[in-house]
Amino acid sequence: MTITPITKNLLIVAGDVSGDLHASNLIKALKAKDPEVKITAIGGKLMEKEADTFLFDLASKGASGFVEPLKKMPMWIKLLSMIRQYMETQNPMALIVVDFYGFNHQVLGLAAHRNIPAYYYVTPQVWASRQYRAKRLAALTRKMFVIYPFEPAFHQKFGGEAVFLGNPLLDIMPDAPAKTFTHIQDTKNHPWKLGLLPGSRMGEITRLTPVFYQAFKKVLKTFPNTQAYLFALPSLPDKVFLDLLGEKPHPHFHIVRDEHYAQRAQMDYLLCCSGTATLESALLGVPMLVAYKLSWPTYKIAKMVIKVSYISLVNLLAKEKPLVKEFIQQDATAQALAAETAAMFQNPQKLEDMHKKLLELRASLGEKGVALRAAENILEDLKK
Fold first, then answer.
1. Domain that residue 212 falls in
2. Residue 119 and residue 375: Cα distance in Å, rounded?
3. 284 and 267 housed in the same domain
4. Which of 156, 177, 288, 337 is placed for a possible disulfide with 215 were both Cys, Cβ 3.0 to 4.6 Å?
5. pTM for the complete prediction?
């Protein structure tokens, strides 16, 4: 049976939680700019809600690092076969992929072989490791929509057309509330709000949740009124986190879910897993430290291929010197994190200075309306 291609059909593919969020906003923007557009999506629950046709929930099965994706290869091979068949029967007007290089560069290859124009929204950070990938991206895409102001110049060196329209996180983040800390006189007895963000992937959550919790308990010895708030994924039950504590939770420990960032914006300080959460927190102006633990095989490979000096996006974007302390692998201990947190609580001026510098960083990343500008750009480019 021959399937008639849908007019103005766009195929959009994302592979993890943050990609699902950004892609869903782009879908809404594309439909706002052209109501005749029909979206077929592979991604997550947010994309499923916005798309006309949803093929597969890849976001819930994503993997990171160097070793974990190998375990997903059988599933990816089946999904690539489905995408190949879809492209050949539906002949989409264009392909848009979102982050998630390991899988999406294969999807881009399928599109290239079928002369389907392709765009990359939220381009992977190939400038940080395996820079040779930039040349492949240049060959497979008509245009890339990057999320940091220094990226267009980087991709241009490899022949890629990349534009910076602002960071898409600005579309979903609230304005940063004004914060003051220097009015705090009795730092020891102040009711500090300490946020714990152990990551969005199970490997991160498993490795960092116990460390963050024990760090909080050590902070309590000096600052007994501190309240800790663990920011949990909506999809994971409390039991996952409580089991990782290894003991009955302290009365000052709370598990929260905060889809609109209102609670995180009220935190005084954060213990934050490296990743998108660090940039989100920076846009809120919340002072933080950054920690990360990988499996040892992944860590050894990462040390060989990563070409940047810092793991956190906040420090990579800082123009002069790093803004936040980083604790990696064996350095990410409860004792070290607690000592850094205590040092910040004892010096409210440091907290206030970091808050101001984080807001300066936010100003360098553009203005709201990023998804709408990207949608308009893609639709205009397709008219050509």
1. 193-363
2. 11
3. yes
4. 337
5. 0.82
